[in-house]
Amino acid sequence: MSGPKAIILSDDETRRALTRIAHEIIERNKGADRLALIGIHTRGIPLATRLAAKLSELEGVDVPTGMLDITLYRDDLSEVAHQPIIRETQVPFDISQRRVVLVDDVLYTGRTVRAALDALIDLGRPAGIQLAVLVDRGHRELPIRADYVGKNLPTAASEVVKVKLQETDGGVDSVELWDLADLKAELR
Amino acid sequence: MSAPAPRPRHLLDFQDWSPDRLTAMLDNADTMLQVLDRPVKKVPALQGLTVCNAFFENSTRTRTSFELAARRMSADVLTFAAGSSSVSKGESLRDTVEVLTAYKVDAYIVRHHAAGAAHLVARYSGKPVINAGDGRRAHPTQALLDAYTVRQEFGSLEGKRVAIIGDIRHSRVARSNAELLPKLGAEVVLCGPATLLPADLAALPGVTLTSDPKEAVRGAHAVMALRLQKERMNGGFLGSLQEYADVYQVNERLLAEAESGAIVLHPGPMNRDLEISGEAADGPRSRILQQVENGQAIRMSVLYHLLVGRD
Prior knowledge:
Chain A is an alpha/beta fold. Helices cover 32% and strands 26% of the residues of chain A.
């Protein structure tokens, strides 16, 4: 059984990357007032929660967090072969006049983020939207870039970036790089 | 392990729908209800698709509800009312559907006075069809919104008793509920005068019949009054409307027999003070307006389930 080609981020490295992102968010926004963190399903949600805890620890401010499901905003719904499961969107605060940091695990084509921007703007009129991702793997199909990146990772289209987080996958945090064929074999 | 059965292409009745798929449809209505609560009550899920609202029979709330549901999902909506169409010149259902299909319609919502009409539209159009009521046979989205309203109140349908009281014979709502609710774990009691209570419905699993309204309501978590279709009451079904109201009206006196937290439902439109008292319709137990709101969310969910994905 072949495993991942490389471990891109270990448990400690993931933690450090998030700590650095938290500092960058504070620096860019001159503190954490009027900020909100919104995680994109699935792994963006625990990442947003962790960043909020880190911001609270560093700045002594409670930053509200929410979760966003972008299923109904996907641009390929008429083409998908299966029916995507709709998950919960929960933003229990008014995003108007707040600077919202969207949080996701991997930035790839940019289509998920495009859908998230549409979904977010339907919820209100934030003062600004920023994007934080744990990994930017390239291959953008839309003019979208992240404001905060844990790890820039040049990849081939035949590769898969697999993020594992304690909250969603159990065990320890890690970011692995796989060949698509090996990952399919692993999942069989 | 065998692959799951393919997703049904139409919602004509509940025959092809598994409890899991029905539950998923109710679950997704939660999300649709959230969408309806937002400042922007619209999502782009069905952008680029055209939905035809083909109503060959009068309807206010179902037609409006479907039209809004489709628009909330960003579909283009073509509303077709038979009264102002070539149907009134004698055009057949088949010809009408073939003409509409030539306009690149992607899905049909069909209301018709003849049972089975929605099946015919499915056959002639080759497109997904949602039955919005065909004759006395079925009205699946009404049953789904009824089920959703009960589930919303009690958290689950499992073990819940739903009493449906009135003109069962002519009611597609009663038939669809009798088919759907037991699939989701509820028990259904159909109640009406013997002349309006077809015995064959007792063969449905989870369904019992009675002509005694007190017996029907005893232990019920939800009590649904059906519209008495006065236009159909000239066949000797009833002694008089007053006699019917005296025995079968859903009112506070009858509701005293139900569970303490029981809710009152009505598919609309209502004959106030005939099948339901004003007090029951407007009282704290009433969820009639909630049903209307839920109807839009359920229909959004149905459209999503039929028009998104190709599994």
